[in-house]
Amino acid sequence: MTQTSFDDTRSAPAAAEALDRAHAAAVDWLTRMPERGIPATTGVAETQSRLGLELPTDPEPPGDVIDALIRAVEPGLMASQSPRFFGWVMGGTLPASLAADWLVSAWDQNAGMREVTTGVVAAEDLAGRWLCELLGLDPACDVGFTTGATMANLTGLAAARTRVLRDAGWDADERGLAGGPPIRFLAGAERHGSVDLAARLLGLGAAELIDADDQGRIRPDLLAEALAGRSGPTILALQAGNVHSGAFDPFAECVAVAHDAGAWVHVDGAFGLWAGASPRSRHLMRGAEDADSWATDAHKTLNVPYDCGVAIVRDRVSLRQAMGTHASYLTATTTADADPHERVPEMSRRARGVPVWAALRSLGTSGVAALMDRLTRSAQLLADGVTAVPGLQVLNDVVFTQVCVAASTDEATRALGELLRADGVAFASSSEWHGRAVLRFSVSNAGTDDEAVAESLAALRRAAERIGEQ
Ligand SMILES: *Cc1c(COP(=O)(O)O)cnc(C)c1O
Protein backbone atom coordinates (compact mmCIF):
# COMPACT_ATOMS: atom_id res chain seq x y z
CA MET A 1 0.00 0.00 0.00
CA THR A 2 1.40 3.37 -0.95
CA GLN A 3 1.70 5.92 1.77
CA THR A 4 -0.65 8.90 1.72
CA SER A 5 1.21 12.17 1.34
CA PHE A 6 0.23 15.53 2.78
CA ASP A 7 -0.79 16.63 -0.73
CA ASP A 8 -3.00 13.56 -1.11
CA THR A 9 -5.05 14.76 1.86
CA ARG A 10 -5.98 17.98 0.11
CA SER A 11 -6.38 17.06 -3.57
CA ALA A 12 -9.63 17.75 -5.41
CA PRO A 13 -10.36 14.03 -6.00
CA ALA A 14 -9.79 13.35 -2.30
CA ALA A 15 -12.23 16.13 -1.41
CA ALA A 16 -14.86 14.76 -3.79
CA GLU A 17 -14.43 11.26 -2.37
CA ALA A 18 -14.79 12.46 1.24
CA LEU A 19 -17.83 14.57 0.38
CA ASP A 20 -19.48 11.66 -1.48
CA ARG A 21 -19.08 9.44 1.56
CA ALA A 22 -20.38 12.16 3.89
CA HIS A 23 -23.33 12.72 1.55
CA ALA A 24 -24.25 9.01 1.48
CA ALA A 25 -24.01 8.76 5.27
CA ALA A 26 -26.06 11.91 5.78
CA VAL A 27 -28.84 10.72 3.48
CA ASP A 28 -28.85 7.35 5.24
CA TRP A 29 -28.96 9.06 8.66
CA LEU A 30 -31.95 11.16 7.69
CA THR A 31 -33.83 8.51 5.70
CA ARG A 32 -33.75 6.01 8.53
CA MET A 33 -34.44 8.66 11.19
CA PRO A 34 -38.11 7.75 11.81
CA GLU A 35 -37.25 4.13 12.64
CA ARG A 36 -34.19 4.82 14.79
CA GLY A 37 -34.22 4.33 18.54
CA ILE A 38 -33.68 7.75 20.04
CA PRO A 39 -30.99 7.60 22.76
CA ALA A 40 -27.30 7.18 21.89
CA THR A 41 -26.26 3.57 22.41
CA THR A 42 -22.56 4.06 23.14
CA GLY A 43 -20.91 6.30 25.70
CA VAL A 44 -18.11 8.79 25.19
CA ALA A 45 -15.30 6.49 26.33
CA GLU A 46 -16.40 3.61 24.11
CA THR A 47 -16.80 5.93 21.14
CA GLN A 48 -13.33 7.33 21.74
CA SER A 49 -11.75 3.91 21.72
CA ARG A 50 -13.54 3.17 18.44
CA LEU A 51 -12.22 6.45 17.05
CA GLY A 52 -8.69 5.55 18.18
CA LEU A 53 -7.12 7.28 21.14
CA GLU A 54 -3.70 7.94 19.67
CA LEU A 55 -2.94 11.05 17.65
CA PRO A 56 -1.86 9.60 14.27
CA THR A 57 1.62 10.35 12.93
CA ASP A 58 0.94 9.87 9.25
CA PRO A 59 -1.56 11.30 6.76
CA GLU A 60 -4.64 9.24 5.86
CA PRO A 61 -6.97 9.64 2.86
CA PRO A 62 -9.89 11.97 3.78
CA GLY A 63 -12.50 9.45 2.59
CA ASP A 64 -11.12 6.85 5.00
CA VAL A 65 -11.17 9.39 7.82
CA ILE A 66 -14.83 10.10 7.11
CA ASP A 67 -15.63 6.37 7.02
CA ALA A 68 -13.92 5.86 10.36
CA LEU A 69 -15.78 8.83 11.81
CA ILE A 70 -19.17 7.56 10.67
CA ARG A 71 -18.55 4.02 11.93
CA ALA A 72 -17.32 5.12 15.34
CA VAL A 73 -19.68 8.00 16.04
CA GLU A 74 -23.05 6.89 14.66
CA PRO A 75 -23.95 4.58 17.58
CA GLY A 76 -23.27 7.55 19.86
CA LEU A 77 -25.69 9.84 18.04
CA MET A 78 -28.99 10.77 19.62
CA ALA A 79 -31.81 10.71 17.04
CA SER A 80 -32.89 14.20 17.99
CA GLN A 81 -34.40 14.72 14.54
CA SER A 82 -36.90 11.94 15.14
CA PRO A 83 -40.52 13.11 14.91
CA ARG A 84 -40.97 11.55 18.38
CA PHE A 85 -38.16 13.50 20.00
CA PHE A 86 -39.38 16.10 22.50
CA GLY A 87 -36.26 16.62 24.62
CA TRP A 88 -35.06 20.04 25.85
CA VAL A 89 -36.04 22.49 23.08
CA MET A 90 -34.46 21.08 19.94
CA GLY A 91 -35.58 21.43 16.36
CA GLY A 92 -34.73 19.20 13.43
CA THR A 93 -33.43 20.32 10.04
CA LEU A 94 -35.41 21.38 7.01
CA PRO A 95 -33.86 19.97 3.79
CA ALA A 96 -33.24 23.38 2.22
CA SER A 97 -31.55 24.73 5.33
CA LEU A 98 -29.37 21.64 5.74
CA ALA A 99 -28.20 21.71 2.12
CA ALA A 100 -27.53 25.44 2.39
CA ASP A 101 -25.53 24.78 5.54
CA TRP A 102 -23.32 22.31 3.66
CA LEU A 103 -22.67 24.94 1.03
CA VAL A 104 -21.80 27.47 3.73
CA SER A 105 -18.98 25.12 4.78
CA ALA A 106 -17.91 24.38 1.21
CA TRP A 107 -17.91 28.06 0.26
CA ASP A 108 -16.07 28.84 3.52
CA GLN A 109 -16.84 32.54 3.40
CA ASN A 110 -15.96 34.84 6.24
CA ALA A 111 -19.31 36.56 6.60
CA GLY A 112 -18.17 39.48 8.74
CA MET A 113 -17.42 42.02 6.01
CA ARG A 114 -20.06 43.47 3.73
CA GLU A 115 -17.91 44.57 0.79
CA VAL A 116 -15.85 41.41 0.60
CA THR A 117 -18.10 38.37 0.80
CA THR A 118 -21.04 40.04 -0.88
CA GLY A 119 -22.88 36.86 -1.88
CA VAL A 120 -23.48 35.51 1.59
CA VAL A 121 -23.94 38.96 3.15
CA ALA A 122 -26.71 39.61 0.61
CA ALA A 123 -28.52 36.40 1.57
CA GLU A 124 -28.06 37.03 5.30
CA ASP A 125 -29.34 40.60 5.07
CA LEU A 126 -32.43 39.45 3.24
CA ALA A 127 -32.95 36.68 5.79
CA GLY A 128 -32.72 39.27 8.57
CA ARG A 129 -35.27 41.53 6.96
CA TRP A 130 -37.62 38.63 6.19
CA LEU A 131 -37.33 37.43 9.78
CA CYS A 132 -38.43 40.80 11.14
CA GLU A 133 -41.32 40.90 8.70
CA LEU A 134 -42.39 37.37 9.57
CA LEU A 135 -42.17 37.88 13.33
CA GLY A 136 -44.00 41.21 13.24
CA LEU A 137 -40.96 43.32 14.15
CA ASP A 138 -39.79 46.56 12.55
CA PRO A 139 -37.86 45.53 9.39
CA ALA A 140 -35.50 48.46 9.96
CA CYS A 141 -34.02 46.70 13.01
CA ASP A 142 -30.43 45.51 12.88
CA VAL A 143 -30.19 41.71 12.74
CA GLY A 144 -27.13 39.69 13.73
CA PHE A 145 -26.64 35.94 13.35
CA THR A 146 -25.14 34.40 16.46
CA THR A 147 -24.33 30.86 17.59
CA GLY A 148 -27.59 30.65 19.54
CA ALA A 149 -30.04 32.53 21.72
CA THR A 150 -27.51 32.71 24.56
CA MET A 151 -25.27 34.92 22.44
CA ALA A 152 -28.30 36.70 20.99
CA ASN A 153 -29.36 37.54 24.56
CA LEU A 154 -25.83 38.77 25.24
CA THR A 155 -25.93 40.90 22.09
CA GLY A 156 -29.27 42.53 22.88
CA LEU A 157 -28.31 43.16 26.50
CA ALA A 158 -24.91 44.59 25.47
CA ALA A 159 -26.65 47.14 23.24
CA ALA A 160 -28.98 47.85 26.17
CA ARG A 161 -26.07 48.41 28.53
CA THR A 162 -24.39 50.81 26.13
CA ARG A 163 -27.61 52.77 25.64
CA VAL A 164 -28.88 53.09 29.20
CA LEU A 165 -25.47 54.20 30.44
CA ARG A 166 -25.01 56.65 27.58
CA ASP A 167 -28.41 58.12 28.42
CA ALA A 168 -27.10 58.58 31.98
CA GLY A 169 -24.06 60.43 30.64
CA TRP A 170 -21.63 57.54 30.93
CA ASP A 171 -19.75 56.00 27.97
CA ALA A 172 -19.23 52.46 29.23
CA ASP A 173 -17.49 51.35 26.05
CA GLU A 174 -14.83 54.02 26.66
CA ARG A 175 -14.67 54.11 30.46
CA GLY A 176 -15.79 50.66 31.54
CA LEU A 177 -18.34 49.99 34.24
CA ALA A 178 -16.38 50.79 37.37
CA GLY A 179 -17.23 54.25 38.70
CA GLY A 180 -20.23 54.58 36.41
CA PRO A 181 -23.89 54.74 37.41
CA PRO A 182 -25.29 51.37 38.53
CA ILE A 183 -27.66 49.56 36.18
CA ARG A 184 -30.84 47.99 37.54
CA PHE A 185 -31.35 44.72 35.74
CA LEU A 186 -34.83 43.23 36.16
CA ALA A 187 -36.13 39.88 34.96
CA GLY A 188 -38.99 37.50 35.66
CA ALA A 189 -38.47 34.77 38.25
CA GLU A 190 -38.71 32.14 35.50
CA ARG A 191 -36.28 33.67 33.01
CA HIS A 192 -34.01 31.25 31.16
CA GLY A 193 -30.55 30.61 32.64
CA SER A 194 -28.88 32.04 29.55
CA VAL A 195 -30.20 35.48 30.50
CA ASP A 196 -28.33 35.21 33.81
CA LEU A 197 -25.21 34.09 31.97
CA ALA A 198 -25.38 37.01 29.55
CA ALA A 199 -25.90 39.44 32.42
CA ARG A 200 -22.92 37.97 34.26
CA LEU A 201 -20.66 38.34 31.23
CA LEU A 202 -21.81 41.94 30.84
CA GLY A 203 -21.14 42.85 34.46
CA LEU A 204 -24.84 43.43 35.18
CA GLY A 205 -24.73 40.95 38.05
CA ALA A 206 -27.66 38.87 39.19
CA ALA A 207 -31.06 40.08 38.03
CA GLU A 208 -33.52 41.59 40.47
CA LEU A 209 -36.30 39.05 40.12
CA ILE A 210 -39.96 39.86 39.72
CA ASP A 211 -42.30 37.07 40.80
CA ALA A 212 -44.16 35.07 38.18
CA ASP A 213 -47.69 33.66 38.08
CA ASP A 214 -48.65 29.97 38.00
CA GLN A 215 -47.69 29.71 34.30
CA GLY A 216 -44.30 31.37 34.82
CA ARG A 217 -45.30 34.77 33.39
CA ILE A 218 -43.80 37.84 35.01
CA ARG A 219 -46.44 39.69 37.08
CA PRO A 220 -47.01 43.14 35.57
CA ASP A 221 -48.42 44.53 38.84
CA LEU A 222 -45.23 43.62 40.69
CA LEU A 223 -43.12 44.96 37.84
CA ALA A 224 -44.98 48.26 38.01
CA GLU A 225 -44.36 48.37 41.76
CA ALA A 226 -40.66 47.69 41.31
CA LEU A 227 -40.37 50.48 38.75
CA ALA A 228 -42.57 53.06 40.49
CA GLY A 229 -40.80 56.20 41.58
CA ARG A 230 -37.39 54.91 40.48
CA SER A 231 -35.17 56.28 37.74
CA GLY A 232 -31.68 55.69 36.44
CA PRO A 233 -30.30 53.17 33.94
CA THR A 234 -32.67 50.18 33.85
CA ILE A 235 -32.88 47.05 31.71
CA LEU A 236 -35.80 44.62 31.76
CA ALA A 237 -35.62 41.11 30.29
CA LEU A 238 -38.97 39.60 29.31
CA GLN A 239 -39.65 36.13 27.97
CA ALA A 240 -41.55 34.79 24.97
CA GLY A 241 -41.91 31.09 25.68
CA ASN A 242 -41.26 29.63 29.12
CA VAL A 243 -39.39 26.34 28.69
CA HIS A 244 -41.78 24.52 31.02
CA SER A 245 -45.17 26.01 30.21
CA GLY A 246 -44.52 27.72 26.88
CA ALA A 247 -46.16 30.81 28.45
CA PHE A 248 -45.53 34.33 27.21
CA ASP A 249 -45.02 37.33 29.47
CA PRO A 250 -47.81 39.96 29.23
CA PHE A 251 -45.81 42.17 26.90
CA ALA A 252 -48.17 45.05 26.27
CA GLU A 253 -48.49 45.95 29.95
CA CYS A 254 -44.86 45.26 30.84
CA VAL A 255 -43.31 47.12 27.91
CA ALA A 256 -45.50 50.16 28.55
CA VAL A 257 -44.67 50.40 32.23
CA ALA A 258 -40.96 49.77 31.57
CA HIS A 259 -40.77 52.38 28.82
CA ASP A 260 -42.52 54.89 31.06
CA ALA A 261 -39.67 54.33 33.51
CA GLY A 262 -37.09 54.83 30.74
CA ALA A 263 -36.02 51.19 30.74
CA TRP A 264 -34.70 49.18 27.79
CA VAL A 265 -36.81 46.09 27.21
CA HIS A 266 -35.19 42.92 25.88
CA VAL A 267 -37.23 39.85 24.94
CA ASP A 268 -35.76 36.35 25.18
CA GLY A 269 -37.83 34.50 22.61
CA ALA A 270 -35.49 31.63 21.82
CA PHE A 271 -38.38 29.51 20.63
CA GLY A 272 -41.43 31.64 21.48
CA LEU A 273 -40.73 34.56 19.14
CA TRP A 274 -41.90 32.24 16.35
CA ALA A 275 -45.46 32.41 17.65
CA GLY A 276 -45.53 35.72 15.76
CA ALA A 277 -45.21 33.87 12.44
CA SER A 278 -48.72 32.41 12.47
CA PRO A 279 -52.05 34.25 12.65
CA ARG A 280 -53.21 31.52 15.06
CA SER A 281 -50.51 32.12 17.67
CA ARG A 282 -49.63 35.75 16.98
CA HIS A 283 -51.81 37.00 19.86
CA LEU A 284 -49.26 35.53 22.29
CA MET A 285 -46.71 38.07 21.08
CA ARG A 286 -49.00 41.08 21.34
CA GLY A 287 -47.02 44.08 22.54
CA ALA A 288 -43.63 42.36 22.19
CA GLU A 289 -43.04 44.29 18.96
CA ASP A 290 -42.67 47.46 21.04
CA ALA A 291 -39.62 46.15 22.90
CA ASP A 292 -36.08 47.33 22.10
CA SER A 293 -34.27 44.07 21.41
CA TRP A 294 -35.15 40.42 20.87
CA ALA A 295 -33.25 37.15 20.87
CA THR A 296 -34.34 34.02 19.08
CA ASP A 297 -33.04 30.78 17.63
CA ALA A 298 -33.35 29.48 14.11
CA HIS A 299 -31.99 26.12 15.27
CA LYS A 300 -35.02 25.44 17.45
CA THR A 301 -38.48 26.21 16.08
CA LEU A 302 -37.45 27.06 12.49
CA ASN A 303 -35.62 23.73 12.13
CA VAL A 304 -32.34 25.10 10.81
CA PRO A 305 -29.22 23.06 11.72
CA TYR A 306 -27.02 24.12 14.64
CA ASP A 307 -25.70 26.61 15.29
CA CYS A 308 -27.93 29.54 14.50
CA GLY A 309 -29.32 32.23 16.77
CA VAL A 310 -30.64 35.68 15.90
CA ALA A 311 -30.19 39.00 17.71
CA ILE A 312 -32.57 41.77 16.64
CA VAL A 313 -32.00 45.31 17.88
CA ARG A 314 -33.97 48.45 17.12
CA ASP A 315 -31.29 50.97 18.17
CA ARG A 316 -28.59 50.32 15.58
CA VAL A 317 -26.24 52.94 16.93
CA SER A 318 -26.06 51.36 20.37
CA LEU A 319 -25.68 47.88 18.90
CA ARG A 320 -22.84 48.91 16.62
CA GLN A 321 -21.18 50.84 19.42
CA ALA A 322 -21.39 47.78 21.67
CA MET A 323 -20.37 45.16 19.10
CA GLY A 324 -18.29 47.00 16.49
CA THR A 325 -14.51 47.06 16.60
CA HIS A 326 -13.64 49.88 14.22
CA ALA A 327 -10.16 48.41 14.01
CA SER A 328 -8.05 50.28 11.50
CA TYR A 329 -6.75 47.21 9.69
CA LEU A 330 -10.19 46.35 8.42
CA THR A 331 -11.39 47.69 5.12
CA ALA A 332 -13.63 50.61 5.90
CA THR A 333 -17.21 50.11 4.75
CA THR A 334 -18.27 52.47 2.01
CA THR A 335 -21.99 52.00 2.44
CA ALA A 336 -24.16 53.28 5.23
CA ASP A 337 -24.96 49.71 6.21
CA ALA A 338 -23.04 48.06 9.00
CA ASP A 339 -20.61 45.27 8.43
CA PRO A 340 -22.18 42.11 9.82
CA HIS A 341 -19.38 41.88 12.40
CA GLU A 342 -20.65 45.11 13.97
CA ARG A 343 -23.85 43.35 14.97
CA VAL A 344 -22.54 40.24 16.75
CA PRO A 345 -19.76 39.35 19.18
CA GLU A 346 -17.70 37.48 16.54
CA MET A 347 -15.53 39.01 13.86
CA SER A 348 -14.77 36.03 11.62
CA ARG A 349 -17.64 33.60 11.38
CA ARG A 350 -19.43 31.20 9.07
CA ALA A 351 -22.37 32.54 7.07
CA ARG A 352 -24.88 30.93 9.40
CA GLY A 353 -27.67 33.21 8.22
CA VAL A 354 -27.69 31.59 4.76
CA PRO A 355 -29.51 28.44 5.96
CA VAL A 356 -32.13 30.78 7.47
CA TRP A 357 -32.60 32.39 4.06
CA ALA A 358 -32.98 28.90 2.55
CA ALA A 359 -35.53 27.84 5.19
CA LEU A 360 -37.62 30.98 4.65
CA ARG A 361 -37.41 30.74 0.86
CA SER A 362 -38.37 27.08 1.02
CA LEU A 363 -41.34 27.54 3.37
CA GLY A 364 -42.61 31.00 2.52
CA THR A 365 -44.78 32.82 5.04
CA SER A 366 -47.59 30.25 4.67
CA GLY A 367 -45.16 27.38 5.22
CA VAL A 368 -43.70 28.94 8.38
CA ALA A 369 -47.23 29.53 9.67
CA ALA A 370 -48.11 25.91 8.84
CA LEU A 371 -45.01 24.77 10.74
CA MET A 372 -46.01 26.78 13.83
CA ASP A 373 -49.60 25.53 13.61
CA ARG A 374 -48.40 21.94 13.26
CA LEU A 375 -46.20 22.27 16.35
CA THR A 376 -48.93 23.83 18.50
CA ARG A 377 -51.55 21.37 17.28
CA SER A 378 -49.24 18.43 18.06
CA ALA A 379 -48.57 19.83 21.54
CA GLN A 380 -52.31 20.10 22.13
CA LEU A 381 -52.93 16.55 20.86
CA LEU A 382 -50.13 15.28 23.06
CA ALA A 383 -51.59 17.06 26.10
CA ASP A 384 -55.09 15.72 25.41
CA GLY A 385 -53.68 12.21 25.09
CA VAL A 386 -51.66 12.52 28.31
CA THR A 387 -54.74 13.62 30.24
CA ALA A 388 -56.46 10.41 29.13
CA VAL A 389 -53.71 8.22 30.67
CA PRO A 390 -54.71 7.14 34.20
CA GLY A 391 -52.40 8.63 36.82
CA LEU A 392 -50.89 11.31 34.55
CA GLN A 393 -51.69 14.98 34.44
CA VAL A 394 -50.65 18.01 32.40
CA LEU A 395 -49.47 20.83 34.67
CA ASN A 396 -49.47 23.78 32.27
CA ASP A 397 -51.94 25.59 30.05
CA VAL A 398 -50.77 24.40 26.64
CA VAL A 399 -50.60 27.62 24.64
CA PHE A 400 -47.68 26.85 22.35
CA THR A 401 -45.17 23.98 22.04
CA GLN A 402 -44.49 22.91 25.64
CA VAL A 403 -46.27 20.23 27.65
CA CYS A 404 -45.33 19.55 31.27
CA VAL A 405 -46.44 16.15 32.57
CA ALA A 406 -46.47 14.71 36.07
CA ALA A 407 -47.43 11.35 37.59
CA SER A 408 -48.89 11.04 41.08
CA THR A 409 -45.56 11.41 42.93
CA ASP A 410 -42.16 12.89 42.07
CA GLU A 411 -40.67 9.43 42.25
CA ALA A 412 -43.22 8.08 39.79
CA THR A 413 -42.63 11.04 37.44
CA ARG A 414 -38.89 10.42 37.44
CA ALA A 415 -39.45 6.71 36.80
CA LEU A 416 -41.84 7.59 33.97
CA GLY A 417 -39.12 9.60 32.25
CA GLU A 418 -36.54 6.86 32.64
CA LEU A 419 -38.90 4.18 31.34
CA LEU A 420 -39.96 6.29 28.37
CA ARG A 421 -36.38 7.05 27.36
CA ALA A 422 -35.26 3.44 27.84
CA ASP A 423 -38.13 2.29 25.60
CA GLY A 424 -36.47 4.32 22.83
CA VAL A 425 -39.54 5.21 20.76
CA ALA A 426 -40.13 8.69 22.17
CA PHE A 427 -38.01 11.06 24.21
CA ALA A 428 -38.88 13.78 26.73
CA SER A 429 -36.73 15.58 29.33
CA SER A 430 -37.00 15.14 33.05
CA SER A 431 -37.00 18.46 34.85
CA GLU A 432 -38.39 20.27 37.85
CA TRP A 433 -41.03 22.97 37.80
CA HIS A 434 -42.60 24.75 40.76
CA GLY A 435 -40.97 22.32 43.14
CA ARG A 436 -42.29 19.23 41.37
CA ALA A 437 -40.61 16.62 39.21
CA VAL A 438 -41.95 16.90 35.67
CA LEU A 439 -41.53 15.22 32.33
CA ARG A 440 -41.32 17.97 29.75
CA PHE A 441 -42.30 17.58 26.11
CA SER A 442 -41.16 20.27 23.70
CA VAL A 443 -42.74 19.90 20.28
CA SER A 444 -40.12 21.54 18.10
CA ASN A 445 -39.62 19.22 15.15
CA ALA A 446 -41.19 19.94 11.76
CA GLY A 447 -41.66 16.18 11.27
CA THR A 448 -43.89 15.67 14.30
CA ASP A 449 -47.36 14.81 12.98
CA ASP A 450 -50.50 13.13 14.34
CA GLU A 451 -49.02 9.69 13.77
CA ALA A 452 -45.82 10.54 15.67
CA VAL A 453 -47.90 11.94 18.52
CA ALA A 454 -50.03 8.77 18.64
CA GLU A 455 -46.92 6.54 18.71
CA SER A 456 -45.39 8.71 21.44
CA LEU A 457 -48.56 8.50 23.52
CA ALA A 458 -48.55 4.71 23.14
CA ALA A 459 -44.95 4.68 24.40
CA LEU A 460 -45.93 6.94 27.31
CA ARG A 461 -48.82 4.62 28.21
CA ARG A 462 -46.44 1.63 28.17
CA ALA A 463 -44.11 3.51 30.50
CA ALA A 464 -46.97 4.60 32.79
CA GLU A 465 -48.17 1.01 33.12
CA ARG A 466 -44.72 -0.09 34.17
CA ILE A 467 -44.14 2.53 36.90
CA GLY A 468 -43.63 0.75 40.17
CA GLU A 469 -42.67 -2.55 38.52
CA GLN A 470 -38.97 -1.76 38.38
C1 LIG B 1 -32.76 27.47 24.40
C2 LIG B 1 -33.09 28.73 25.09
C3 LIG B 1 -32.12 29.72 25.28
C4 LIG B 1 -30.67 29.52 24.92
O1 LIG B 1 -30.53 29.29 23.55
P1 LIG B 1 -29.25 28.57 22.94
O2 LIG B 1 -29.58 28.49 21.50
O3 LIG B 1 -29.18 27.23 23.61
O4 LIG B 1 -28.06 29.40 23.23
C5 LIG B 1 -32.51 30.91 25.84
N1 LIG B 1 -33.78 31.11 26.23
C6 LIG B 1 -34.75 30.18 26.07
C7 LIG B 1 -36.15 30.49 26.52
C8 LIG B 1 -34.44 28.95 25.50
O5 LIG B 1 -35.39 28.03 25.32
What does this entry look like structurally?
Helix content is 41%, strand content 12%. It is α/β, with parallel strands linked by helices and 470 residues long. The protein folds into three domains: 8-73, no CATH class; 97-359, Type I PLP-dependent aspartate aminotransferase-like (Major domain) (Aspartate Aminotransferase, domain 2, 3-Layer(aba) Sandwich), CATH 3.40.640; 364-466, Aspartate Aminotransferase, domain 1. The chain has a seven-stranded mixed beta sheet with strand order 2-8-7-6-5-3-4, sandwiched between helices. The longest helix is centred in the last third of the chain and has 34 residues, at 354-387. Mean pLDDT is 95; it is low at 327-335. Residues 89, 148-150, 192, 194, 241, 243, 268, 270-271, 297, 309 line the site of pyridoxal-5'-phosphate.
The CATH superfamily name of the largest domain is: Type I PLP-dependent aspartate aminotransferase-like (Major domain)
Unreliable spans: 327-335
Oligomer state equals single chain
Number of contiguous helices: 14
List the helices and strands and how they pair.
Elements: H1 12-31, H2 44-51, H3 62-73, E1 85-86, H4 95-107, H5 118-135, E2 142-146, H6 149-167, H7 172-175, E3 184-188, H8 193-201, E4 208-210, H9 220-227, E5 234-239, H10 251-260, E6 264-268, E7 293-297, E8 309-313, H11 316-323, H12 354-387, E9 393-394, E10 402-406, H13 410-423, E11 427-433, E12 436-442, H14 450-466
Parallel strand pairs: 1-11, 3-4, 3-5, 5-6, 6-7
Antiparallel strand pairs: 2-8, 7-8, 9-10, 10-12, 11-12
Helix pairs in contact: 1-3, 2-3, 4-12, 5-12, 6-8, 6-11, 9-10, 12-14, 13-14
The structure holds pyridoxal-5'-phosphate (PLP).
Pyridoxal-5'-phosphate (PLP) binds next to helix 6.
